[in-house]
# Entry
Amino acid sequence: MKIVPIDLGERSYDIEIDQNALSRIGAAVESLGSVSRVALITDDNVEPLYAEVASQAIVERGLDLDAIVVPSGEQTKSLDYAEALWEQFLEIKIDRRSVAVALGGGVVGDLAGFVSATYARGIRYFQVPTTLLAQVDSSVGGKTAINLPSAKNMVGAFHQPSGVLIDPTVLNTLSDDQYRAGLGEVVKYGASLDENFFAYLEQNTEKVNARDPIALETVISRCCELKAEIVKKDERETSGLRALLNYGHTFGHALESRIGHGKLLHGFGVALGCSLAARLAFCLAQKGDDRFSDINESWIARQDKLFESLGLPTRLRDLPAVVGVEVDCSPEKLVELMSTDKKTEFGQLNFVLPRKIGDSFLVRNVSVSDVLDALHLQ
Ligand SMILES: NC(=O)c1ccc[n+]([C@@H]2O[C@H](COP(=O)([O-])OP(=O)(O)OC[C@H]3O[C@@H](n4cnc5c(N)ncnc54)[C@H](O)[C@@H]3O)[C@@H](O)[C@H]2O)c1
Ligand SMILES: [Zn+2]
# Structure
C-alpha cells in the first residue's frame, strides 16, 4: 500500500493506493464520523464490475447505502444529470451528514464531485477512481465540473474530497485504448516534472504494458505526488503554477477539437501534443533561444521512444491509424484552432515547453511562425 498525503490545511486528506482499496471504502467512510447515509454513484459500465464489492464494504460497516447508476460517457457530465442527482439525493434523504462515493472514471468523479460540492451547499465525498486517467489526474486536486453544450468543464467548483481510494487492479478490465490514454498523462508527468520517474518508466515499460499492479502502485502514487505538489501551491489555480500540468495540452486540445472530442481520446492528444511541444522547443533552440539549448534530436527521440513503447502516437501521420479515418490536421488549421480556443488568453499562444527531461516551464506568446515551423517538422 502507498499513501500520498494531500496537505491542504483543514482540507487535508490521503490518497491510498492499494490492491484492496475497494474493500476499504466502508472503513474509510466510517472513519469520518457521524455519517447519516452513503450515496454510491457509478456508471453503467462500472456498476456490474465493482459496485457489489464497494457496496458490500459499505453496508458491512452498518452504514445505510443507496446506489445511483448513471449512463457512461461524457454527455452525462451535464446539468440534466446534475439535477437528476440532486433530486435523487433529496428522495433518498441525503443530508449534510451524508457522504457520497464516486466510483468510476473522470466523468463520474467530476459529476458526483460537482453534485457533492453543491447539494445542501456541500457534502463530504470520496473519490474511488477506476480509469488510469482518473487515478493519476482527475481524482486529484479537487476540481469538479459539468459541461455546457458548447464548453467542456465550464461550470464547476473546487471541492476537495475526504479521501481518494485507488485500486490499481481495477484497471485490468479497462479497454486497451482507455488504458493507453491514461499512460499519455503518466508520461507527461515524467517528461515535464520528474526525470527519475521518466527513467523508471523507460526501465519498466513491459511491466506497465502488462498492467503489473506493483509497478502501477509506483506509477500512480508518483503521478499523484507530482500533481499534489503543484495543487498544494496553487489550489485554486490563481498563481498560474497549475498550468505546469499542461505539458502537451495546447497542441493536444487543438487536435482533440480538430478530430472530435471522444474520437481522439484525450491522452492520445496529450502524447502527440508532448511530441509537438518537444519539436517546438527544438525549433526555438535552432533559432538560438538558449533557454532550450539542451533540446536536440536525440532528446526528442528519447521522449518519442517512451511514448511509442507504451503504444502511444508521436507523429501526426499516425493519426489515421489511431482514429480510423483520414483527418486533415494541416499546421495552419491547427494554429487557427489554438488561437481561437476559449482558454487562449488574449489570443496568445502559450505552451509548457521542456528545458530538459523532467524540467519544463510556461512560455507565453510564442509566435505563429515558430509554431508552424514545429508542426512542419512532424
Ligand atoms: N477534475 C479534473 O481535474 C479532471 C482532470 C482531467 C480530466 N477530467 C475529466 O475526466 C473525464 C474523463 O475521464 P475518463 O477518461 O476516466 O473517462 P470516463 O469516465 O468516461 O471513463 C472511460 C470509460 O471507461 C469506463 N470504465 C471506467 N472504469 C472502468 C474499469 N475499471 N473497467 C472497465 N471500464 C471502465 C467508463 O464507463 C467509460 O466508458 C473528462 O470529462 C475530463 O474533463 C477532469
Ligand atoms: Zn490532461
Remarks:
- DSSP finds 15 helices and eleven strands in the chain.
- Residues 176-376 form a domain with the Dehydroquinate synthase-like, alpha domain fold (CATH 1.20.1090.10).
